[in-house]
From TrEMBL:
Protein name: Neurohemerythrin-like
A Pfam family matched in the record: Hemerythrin
Residue ranges occupied by any Hemerythrin-like domain in the UniProt entry: 18-120
Organism expressing this protein natively: Priapulus caudatus
UniProt keyword list: Iron, Metal-binding
Record carries keyword Metal-binding: yes
The family this protein is said to belong to: Belongs to the hemerythrin family.
Length: 121
């Protein structure tokens, strides 16, 4: 499912899951992608994005496990596939990779993460 990218590229209320920490982490992910796009040659910014994504996925999967979400395994697989692609990014980060990660996050939140709304503790 393709979703419109916000312009400027930042979190807004249309991405709200109503879980305070998850929404906060999503905001940080938008900012980290924006930072990489603004300084494509920065290994530090790219590594920060990778670390933030990994940490967020671990937290989200933990909440899903505690909430006994039936789609945890498929959700985890989506995260693993994304991280494998993101880990292959090197500096300078190319336009098509920036666009891919921007689109992935927007689409993932609105079409995959929204499925757990109201199901987590």
């Amino acid at each position: 499912m393709a979703c419109d990218l916000p312009e400027p590229y930042c979190w807004d209320e249309s991405f709200q899951t109503f879980y305070t920490q998850i929404d906060g982490e999503h905001k940080f992910l938008f900012n980290a992608i924006f930072d990489v796009a603004g300084d494509r040659a920065s290994n530090d910014k790219l590594q920060s994005l990778k670390d933030l994504m990994n940490g967020h996925f671990q937290y989200e999967e933990g909440m899903m496990a505690r909430g006994l979400c039936r789609n945890l395994d498929s959700h985890k697989k989506i995260h693993e596939e994304f991280l494998a692609k993101l880990d292959a990014f090197t500096c300078p980060v190319k336009d098509e990779r920036i666009n891919w990660v921007k689109d992935w996050l927007v689409s993932h939140i609105k079409s995959i993460d929204f499925k757990y709304k109201g199901m987590l503790d």
